[in-house]
Amino acid sequence: MMDNALCHRLPQRLIDRVSTVNQAKRLFVLLLLAALGGLTDTCFAKSPPRPPPPPPPPPATVSSPSTVAADLTKAFTEGMAAFQAGDYATAVSKLEMVLAKAGDVPELEPVYFTLGASYYNLAQYPKAIETFNKYVEKFPSGSRIVDATFSIGQAKMLLKDYAGAAAQFAKLENVPQAHDQALLYEGLAWKEGGKVDDAIKALEKLVSPGIQSASAANAGMVLAALYTQKREGDKGNALVQKVLQNTDLVDNMMSLNAMAIELGDNLLDNQSATAALAAYRSVRSREEVIAFQEAKVAAAQKNVAQALAAIRANPSQFLQFVALRDRLQAELDKAQKLSDEAKKLPDLRPGLLLRIGRCFYQLDKRWESIVAFNAVVTKYPSAAERETALFQEMTAYADVNQPKLCQQLCEQYLKEYPKGPNAGAVGYLDGAVALQANDLKGAESAFGSMLERQPDSAFREQMRFLLGNAKFMEGKYDEAANVYRDYLKEYPSGHFAEEAEYRSALTLVFNGKYEPALGLLNAYLRKYPHGQFAADAKYRVMVCKYAASLFDEIIADAKAWQQEFPQDQMEGEVLALLGDSLVGEGKDEAAIPIYVESEKKAYNDEVVNYSLFEASKLMQKLGRWNDVSRLFEEFVKEKPDSPSVVTAIFWIGKAKAHEGRMEEAKQFLVGTLKQYIQDPARESVEQLLQQLAQFCSKRPRPAPAAPAPSPAAVAAADVSPSPASSVPPTPAPLPPYDAAAELDKQLAPLDKIPNPTAKARLFYARAELAQLLKKPAERAKYFAEIEKFKPEELSPVLLAQAGDDLLAKGEAERAATLYSELRDAYPKSDFLDYAYVGLGEIAFAQKNYTRALELFTYAADELAGSKVKDATVGEAKSCLELGNYDKARKLFEQIASVREWRGESTAYAVYSLGEVEARQQHWPEAIAYFQRVFVLYQKYLPWVAKSYIRSAEGFDKLGKRPEAVNHLKEMLRNPKLENFPETEQARRMLQQWGAA
Amino acid sequence: MRTWLLLFILAFAGSAGAQNILLKDGRVIATKGVRRWGDTIMATVDAPAANTGAPGRTAELGYPITQIAKIDFPRPPQLKEAGDLLAQGKAADALSRLEPLLKYYETVGDAPGSFWGETALLKVQALASLGENGPAETLAESVARHAIDPETLLGANVQVAAGLARRGDYERALAIYDTALKQATRPQTLAAAAANKGQSLLVRKEWSAAILSFLEVPVLYPEQKLWMPRVLLGCGRAYAGLQDLERAKASFHELTGAFPLTAEAGEARNELEKIAKFEKVNHK
Fold this sequence. Notes:
Chain A is 72% helix and 0% strand. Chain B has helices spanning 2-16, 77-87, 91-106, 116-129, 133-146, 150-166, 170-183, 187-203, 207-214, 216-220, 228-241, 245-258, 263-281; strands at residues 20-23, 28-30, 33-37, 40-47, 57-64, 68-72. Chain A binds chain B through residues 281, 356, 360, 367-368, 370-372, 374-375, 400, 402, 405, 680-681, 823-827, 850, 853-854, 857-858, 861-862, 878-879, 882-884, 887, and chain B through 166-169, 203, 205, 208, 211-212, 215-216, 218-220, 222, 235, 244, 247, 273-274, 277-278, 280-282.
């Protein structure tokens, strides 16, 4: 507040000038000038516009011969004083009087301005505009021209003449000291007037050079909001970031935060999640806002203190600094108010995290969204946003196919928010996710529970129906039937009514209640003759009839069914049933082609296998081995990937062998192999090659004997008996059978295939034969050939076995290449664990024990294939080397105890248990293990040798040299250990101890 | 030695700014430099001239650490630089930024407000990135022993736990990470704990848990870029473990694009080749 005494002091030298009326006027003016001389901004309006000039000091004692002059002076003084005191009405009346009586003199500039300000403060904006306009007209170069122009603009804003206001502010764009504020207010005026483009244009002029003033910072915030309105969120975001880089120019961080959140929300609604995320990330935390506002208060306090210090230091320039002080005090008050508001702010974090979660969700980054939602749920238990976050988290889990985690959250939600706004959806989701994951019990429990807890759920119909399905899939047919019945009662025309009716009938079929099932099935077919389950229903009718042995009817029904539903998916089943019915009527011959047709048309592996082997059985029963062979040959040709292929090959071989046609069997195999031998991914090829090697490993059985001749033929042959005919001829000795040559002969057509995978596999076939013939050197030779191929040319089996072969020969690098190829290209192979164990051994040898442990652990725990023993041993020894003795001990104990693994690995495990103790300096325990090895596992000489040495070392550490010496001498007495390096070591140790 | 130390202090005072000591009783001591002497912080302050007209002097005053609320060290830019360099796989360059900073802060150790702990832990990270696990673990243990700031202690424990994990002791490591995640407030510590926890879970093939742990870094601590190469690589492997090859590829591609020179990017390229081979074999 102004100090009134200071305002009213009059320089003495002017007091004495007194004269006539004109002089009085002039005196008044001079007094006015004197009062104004040397003063700058002092008095302020209560709110914009800019402050009017300070009032001149009243004359202390003026004796004027002119009453008019005195009156004018008095009126002026009183008017100014009234303004100072905030009595704007009085100021208006006094200053109007001055203007009326003083006439039109240039020195009335401050009067016009103060009068305009008074009208403004009285909210008489038209009068304020009129007065300021007069000022502008009369004093175009006046000291307050900028303020007056600005004030006109502000008054027009308040009168909602936004265009007029904008025009006013535009006039000041080129005035340096008003440039920023003018552009800001021009922009605001256009914005209020709904002219967004004009507003943007004005504000852009202000911010484009950069955020260099508080006005620019404010303009930036307004402009960002306008960009959002215009769906130019990226520009809005960029502007927010610029403002944030200049927070020293921002007064109100809370406004900036609100603006950033609003910007983010608009962007998210417009599917611009990336930009929305950037906006949300720019929001400052509650703590940061409080700290920011407090810092503003501190800075404002410092400024006020500095102004006061300046006033104290320079009392003569009081008037100059007091206005500044007052402005700074106003800023301090504002800063303090904002700081107090900041402390009342709620924590923004839960709301922000929820929004961030939504951004990630929209970006299809479901896992990231889960993290954000989960943070709200776990860290802000009382937040209003928690319920929504929990619901969204579980939805995201369902999206990423994590049914268990989704269900856990469903349970949590229903416990914490049983009447929450999403409770109905959550109840449904709980069961639906369980059903999808084939957790039938869980689905049954969830749906059953929800139907009770949420009788009014919007998902009731679905849940009731799916409950029935869950029970059905669990085999609880009676219960399922009840549920379907309840469903149909509640929803007779429901969405799932047809299916519920059909399933009701099915429950009876699966329960073996064929008669009532027949009734319901026929009822369904009557109601839905062309229903979506009609084909299946008619099949089930046949099944019911089969139970009643109504074979004739089935045969007729099946034929009719085939005509009505050509190429239906159930055709295989129907044909199998037809085949069964024909067999039921003793028509085996007729059943065979039906079964064959069924096998070819069925989609279901179970039906395929059933029909295939039923046909084969009948063929065998009728002695049609040729047909058996042909049946399986066709099967192998048509379904080479079927798991039954190897069995089929077996039957082909058996059939042809039965007929003495092993050669054909081999040729068939070769024919099949020709189709697939080049494809490294077909793992069954190696099985077929093994089969071929087996066929070739033994001399084939001769063809069955020719049938016995008829009696007439015998009689005719018996006409002239010869001496020789009474003794059967001795059969000629057979040449030695060369299995390898036989295999080579069979493989000849395949040898012509230039494909490297094929060639490698042929070596494998030869290696397999060598194995069968117990020729390890030959086997090794063929594997050496296999190892010359590139890894990508080899199948999983060859990669696995060749890798092991190379590793055993010490060629670790090459082995690693093969193992890596197996791991990378065939992650679903049955031989995958070879890769992990092999790579683990290589890492172990390189002393990369951490990596070795990872590989072995994965092979042992996740793959658990044929290499599980090696994997477990690898895991154990890696733990030993890493100093993880507890785990190492556990694993070695496990290895030593597995009966199926008895052998060298047991000896090694016991030895290693000794090592576990030895490395921890537990020598008595270590010695006990080592002794067990050379006592109980004498067969495994390498470990025996090592154990003797370690025992001796142990005794020596315990100060029992004699025992140590005895152990070593005992070792040296064992001739089987003569060639081991430990024997030489033992001799050296004895020499060192003087006990040699 | 003292002169040398003071020279260091003054040399960094130019870049780091003067340090005020904020005492617990509310007093603020403006200093020209500080050093640690046992459990006392010695502050160099202006002293009045001996005689009128004589030049100004400085003096050293000691303040027990227990009385100090905070030493107002300005945050050194080298910390961010080193973090950015680590994120880009330039661990050796990061070390060169950190060494002089560490020497400087060693004069005050882990006094409240000192950046010694944070600097030392960054150095641990740099050493581990260079494969120097032994020195990294030794330094981490040293930080844990000397830390008085609870946050520094938690951060050091996280690095010690990383060493345990390298030796296969995942149970203990995970327990330490969980403690840090519960108690820490600094984003640096929380991000380190989350990323390392993810790594341990990944090795144990707990794919979902590993993904959620890794992703805490970009979701909750997005400024902690130095962990992103490891996070992206780990997430990619975990997605592959869940058979979500599309997300796995996206993660690896993001890694090779954003942090191309890191060791993790090299591993990511190998992983992408593996996936390509698998998809080719499986006729995708």
